[in-house]
Amino acid sequence: MIIYGKQIVLYVLENHPKLVEEVFLSKEIDNKLFSKFLKLGKKIHRLDNQKAQALAKGGNHQGFFLKLSQFDYAPIKELKAMNFILVLDGVTDVGNIGAIARTAYSLGIDGIIASNIKTINNSGIVRTSAGALLDLPFCIHPRSADLASELIDAGFTLIGATMDGVDLKKYGKIEKSDKVALFLGSEGEGISPKVAKKLDLKVSIKMEHEFDSLNVSVAAGILIYNLKR
Fold first, then answer.
1. Among 79, 80, 112, 128, which one has the highest count of C-beta atoms within 10 angstroms of its own C-beta?
2. Numbered ranges of CATH 3.40.1280.10 in the chain
3. What are the residue boundaries of the RNA 2-O ribose methyltransferase substrate binding domain, all occurrences included (predicted)?
4. What is the CATH number of domain 1-66?
């Protein structure tokens, strides 16, 4: 798995050096930083600009690349044992998933399940999460409705963000002992109808001006912060 960009590379270097298999650099760096790469004991490759752009597929690599060992999903059983998890129902955009993971980790969410999908760009979501997904249990589930039923059986209260939900301000905060799964749908489709029928509570974010909807990663931050504060 290849990741690129200075921030994520330095995060891995500092927090997960054992995941690094190879280093790729396309710019000169100071001796102090280069010595940190040397301490990894891994092969360091020098790339010209053309090869660097090809490796990043046109992304903003800033001259830093790492090849990491394969990203492992957490077992679904592990997430069912948690208290406050986030379920992304049909959210597929790599940037949104990464941004949500970054916010969720910062605000103390226990884990994330991406549902209604079968595959995902692992390197993309790790990169856009700025490394948060290396520290936050994450897995995928192919069917959201089945997952909702499994979480109910595991003792979770299901809360979903919908346009017709109760104003978030009218809902109390989540206690640490509560088992809650917060469902967020994609911006285009929202939460799938079969999941919506299983929700214990629908919440929404009251907006001061008429507008279609918030970006799902922005909505996630608002919802998590208000439910946990």
1. 112
2. 74-226
3. 2-74
4. 3.30.1330.30
Tokens, residue 25: 């650099």
Confirm if 212 and 176 have CB atoms less than 8 A apart.
Answer: no
CATH of 74-226, one of 3.75.10.20, 3.40.1280.10, 3.90.580.10, 2.60.40.10: 3.40.1280.10
pLDDT tens readout for residues 105-159: 999 999 999 999 988 999 999 999 999 999 999 999 999 999 999 999 999 999 9
Question: Which pair of tokens denotes residue 27?
Answer: 């710019």
Q: What is the pTM of this model?
A: 0.89
